[in-house]
Amino acid sequence: MIDFSITDEQKALRDLAKDFAKNEMIPKAEHHDHTGEYPKEILKKAFDVGLMNMHIPVEYGGSGLGVLDELIASEELFYGCSGMATAILANNLALAPVLLGADDYVMKKFVQPMTETFTLAAYAVTEPGAGSDVAGIRTTAKRVGDEYIINGSKMWITNAGHADWFFVLAKTDPNAGHKGMTGFIVDAKTPGIIIGKKEKNMGQRCSDTRGVTFEDVKVPKENMIGKEGEGFKIAMGAFDKTRPAVAIGAVGVARSALDHSIRYANTRNAFGKPISVNQGVSFMIAEMARDIEAGRLLCWQSAWLIDNGFRNTYQASIAKVFCADMAMRVTTDAVQIFGGYGFNEEYPVEKLMRDAKIFQIYEGTSQIQRVIISKFLNDGVGIETPNA
Ligand SMILES: Cc1cc2nc3c(=O)[nH]c(=O)nc-3n(C[C@H](O)[C@H](O)[C@H](O)COP(=O)(O)OP(=O)(O)OC[C@H]3O[C@@H](n4cnc5c(N)ncnc54)[C@H](O)[C@@H]3O)c2cc1C
């Protein structure tokens, strides 16, 4: 039976996130966009009300929520401000590979404390020379006694300037391709970690993105996630959970653009009547709504699959590419509906258009999602659905 209703708990979570977006994020979004100031106080409040680290299992003190639960909350946070929301949800990205592969020691040492104390984490995989081609990373982790020594540089790492720990993907066997990669938790206080300057990005400007260099950084072998050589599988497996969440972020941004467009089109007059009475404008708005609804359903489907034990890589890529491209289109149309005012930073929609662009780039570009989808279709195997 197909059932699109959400539970009372999910409604409560959605309302919590909606109120948080309305009261804490929206009033400060413009300030943080203009200044680029990191919204640490807002993140701390999000932690206090339970909107961070939603997937930590109950046995380690967390709320143990599923991917669909996260999506329901995240859409509201991204509606509020996607720069802040990316910063809030970067912890989930860093935690995703850890929750897939960590043993009890790591869970107790690094994950459990996150349920008690405000902690920030970062997912450090991309490098200056390798983004889409993860197997091309050059950071190494060399075993010396009971430690690994990490050397290399990471790039575009969200929350890097504030992180308490990093999930780092490194090569433990540089000759074994993606099978020679291993994941580690690295305490940010470890000597040898050099944090780069905060990058000035086109959108989501208050989110903290930096390069990070590791120079002879010593990591105890106990901080390894999974086994040696399992890092690529774990880091990629994490995307099955995080891509639906990124895709719903694009839905949140697009929904904000839609709401602004409806309000503006009903109050802006041209030729003696509101511009919304023109079919050329109202159809643009109708198409925004159509695509937002479709995008949300794709996100929910991919989340439902993984929450219910099915592999969702194919559907997560479809949700990610559809929603990212959709948000870019919808926010561009919103700017169009605002006319000259849309192009001006005193009005809200140019921020949304700038913010939307990153959804086509991070967590696998729109091209890479198409590569994944094509591979599934060409192989003719691996698309798992409850009805297959
Ligand atoms: C604001 C921001 C935050 C980020 N946060 C994080 C983070 O927290 N952690 C992290 O590890 N990374 C993060 N990233 C990195 C992000 O995931 C990468 O930028 C992204 O994966 C693309 O890699 P690249 O920039 O090296 O581009 P490249 O891989 O060099 O790609 C350049 C272009 O070539 C295209 N291309 C590449 N290969 C193919 C192919 N096979 N077929 C077709 N087209 C192809 C790409 O789609 C793209 O258009 C972040 C990036 C940004 C900008």
Top keywords for this entry?
Butyryl-CoA Dehydrogenase, subunit A, domain 2; 4-stranded mixed β-sheet; binds flavin-adenine dinucleotide; single chain; 388 residues; alpha+beta; 4-stranded antiparallel β-sheet; Butyryl-CoA Dehydrogenase, subunit A, domain 3; globular; 3 domains; Butyryl-Coa Dehydrogenase, subunit A, domain 1
Structure description:
- The protein has helices spanning 8-35, 40-49, 67-80, 82-101, 104-111, 231-267, 279-307, 313-337, 349-357, 366-379, and strands spanning 121-124, 140-144, 147-158, 165-171, 181-187, 193-195, 209-220, 224-225, 269-270, 273-274.
- It is an alpha+beta fold and 388 residues long.
- It has three domains: 8-115, Butyryl-Coa Dehydrogenase, subunit A, domain 1 (Orthogonal Bundle); 121-229, Butyryl-CoA Dehydrogenase, subunit A, domain 2 (Beta Barrel); 232-379, Butyryl-CoA Dehydrogenase, subunit A, domain 3.
- The strands form three sheets. It has a four-stranded mixed β-sheet. Strands 2-3-7-6 form a four-stranded antiparallel β-sheet, with helices on one face.
- A hairpin with a 2-residue loop joins strand 2 and strand 3 (147-158).
- Helix 3 (67-80) crosses helix 6 and helix 7 (279-307) packs antiparallel against helix 8.
- The two termini are 15 Å apart.
- 47% of the residues are buried.
- The model has no long low-confidence stretch (mean pLDDT 96).
- It binds flavin-adenine dinucleotide.
- Flavin-adenine dinucleotide (FAD) is lined by residues 122-126, 131-132, 156-158, 201, 209, 358, 361-365, 367-368, 371.
